[in-house]
Amino acid sequence: MQFFGGSEISPSPPTLTVSGNNAHMMYVFNRNGVCLLYREWNRPLHTLNAQQDHKLMFGLLFSLKSLTAKMDPTSAERGNLGVPQLPGQGCSFHSFRTNTYKLSFMESPSGIKIILITHPKTGDLRESLKHIYNLYVEYVMKNPLYTPGTPIRSDLFNTTLDQYVRSIA
Amino acid sequence: MAAICSLYIINKSGGLIYYKDYGSGGRMDTNDSLRVASLWHSMHAISQQLSPTTGCYGIELLEADTFDLHCFQSLTGTKFFVVCEPGTQQMESLLKVIYELYTDYVLKNPFYEMEMPIRCELFDINLSQVVQKDRVVLLGR
Lengths: 169, 141
Hints:
The structure holds two protein chains of two kinds. Chain A is an alpha+beta fold. Chain A is built from three helices and five strands.
């Protein structure tokens, strides 16, 4: 794990007790914005009800994606702001950090979005998100009883995921 | 090759009051820069709502595929953000220097109206010096 300097104005964020208590929550969305999975490990503050919270999270990612596509300094052709981007199209982002949390984001070519929220001093989690996507493919997509687009209810996936997240963060 | 691509300053209600472009990718047109600024203002506010713990002040660093965006919010709600190359260091300190310039050359200017676009020659001159110096330091390493 890699640590880099935090900001001075922030009040002390939750201290790192033992490794494994570092991830706050995780979201999985499909390309239509349906929340397939929401896992919560450590979240003392709830400002909204669950449904509103998921909507707000999806909206934030959608808008940040169109923002980064528009601001991309390397390409001249950037399209219009607010036009939906296909997965893999335009400049996307992989994480952002505030003084209290770090959000890591991955989008698969089929539009599955995996969001992991951890302690702000967590390092790069891109590889870990890819591994979580592999878990999703193995335990969810290969399950013959799973209907795509419905919330994931698989205990096996949940326990494997919990174990893995405990090991990385 | 410039480390810093652009600088934005937005007032506490999300209006763009200063925009400067240093990159080679071409300047964004005025309407788009205004839209981007107010979009960033709302994303910053939403990120505070989604915090798992109390005391969140919004996004400080956004890491996109081709650039990093560093944001600094002053206590009065004015936000300064720079777009730079991925992995550029010491942007927090640069933003604080820019904030100092803003307080010295903009806020202390008796002809400047609060929350209005910044048109101060001295601010422009000093800002370009700071950015130039920063660029030299980066090239020197």
